Amino acid sequence: MTDITDQVIAEYAIRQLQARYTDSVWRQDMETFGDCFTEDCEWKIGGVTLNGRTEIVSYMRELFATKFRRLFITLRTPLLDVQKGKASGRTYMSARNIMADGTAFAPFGVYYEHFVGEGDKWRFSWRLFQTLYAGPADLSGSFFDQEQFGPSPGMPPRDVATLDVTGLHKKR
Amino acid sequence: MTDFAAADSGMRQLQARYVDSVWRKDFDAFADCFTEGAEWRIAGQVLLGRAACVGLLRKIMPSIERVFMTMGTPLLQLRGEEIIARTYVTEINVSKGVPPMFAIGIYYDRCVQEGSRWRFAWHHYQSYYHGPADLTAPFRHIIDYGAPFGMPGSDEPAPAAGSADFGEETVS
Fold this sequence. Notes:
With 172 residues, chain A is α+β, with helices and mostly antiparallel strands. Helices cover 26% and strands 40% of the residues of chain A. In chain A, 31% of the residues are buried. Chain A starts with a helix and ends in a 29-residue tail after the last strand. Chain A has a single domain, classed as Nuclear Transport Factor 2, Chain: A (Roll). The mean pLDDT of chain A is 94. The longest helix of chain A is centred in the first third of the chain and has 24 residues. In chain A, strands 1, 2, 3, 4, 5, 6, 7, 8 and 9 form a 9-stranded mixed β-sheet that branches. Chain A is built from 3 helices and 9 strands. The C terminus of chain B is likely disordered. Chain B contains 3 helices and 7 strands. In chain B, strands 1, 2, 3, 4, 5, 6 and 7 form a 7-stranded mixed β-sheet that branches. In chain B, a hairpin with a 2-residue loop joins strand 6 and strand 7. Chain B is of the alpha+beta class and 172 residues long. The longest helix of chain B is centred in the first third of the chain and has 23 residues. Chain B has one domain: Roll (Nuclear Transport Factor 2, Chain: A). The chains are: A alpha+beta (172), B alpha+beta (172). The interface between A and B is medium-sized, with 32 and 31 residues.
């Protein structure tokens, strides 16, 4: 149990982290993007498990450059469980993207994440992204039944499976 | 850190008052979001003073049925007594006689605290997209000010839509 001051400060720092993340994705600033992750962060997304900041940046740099023209992400309020110097939680997202071929892609999904405070910044130390909808903004695309983990603070186990439902990710 | 958390709360409350006043077309509440000497740069215009800022809203609102704005998390920095911020925003605009439109943009702000309230002292808007909700209109070029907290110059104009220095991407 943390006191309310710790809770408020952690929530503020995590929302700032998420804002840096979405800003860096929009601007395709991979240096700032990489600084959002701990050195040994693990990220499970689209059937792929990325290990470490270097691999995350390398993989996403190629994905952004080859698949997307624009990535505009909106994150909702993170639902958090704060402990001393670390936190975990879930955050729903939606996006308004333009693919490399010029078509619109407006998915939504959820991030399950662990966070740690490192100096004056908080960073992602573990992430699972689940796509919940993929398709155009008019919702004529596909919805996906992903595994759920109960009410907050329920979290996925670290070895949870990640599914490629969009076909965007490389087989590894 | 508590100073940042308090500033974050004040900034988000200011933005919530701003969004609410635009939705309700409450010009007095909108005006109260700006300092007396505020400067608002938008679409090639420079509006000086609170009266000029609210004057723009009074001028455009008769042709608009509804504006539903959603602000992302403001990225913040405290500089002395001032908040520096960048905030991504989306809008659903319903105007008389034309189909609903969707907009994506960014606000670069400098805010000051006056009594219990924070207000916009310098409010700079850049549009990235304005068109149908299916994103079939062209996106505009990003003017990238770098990682936070790069900001536009205080006298830098907010590009007008379609201007030569704010060209549009071709979507195939």
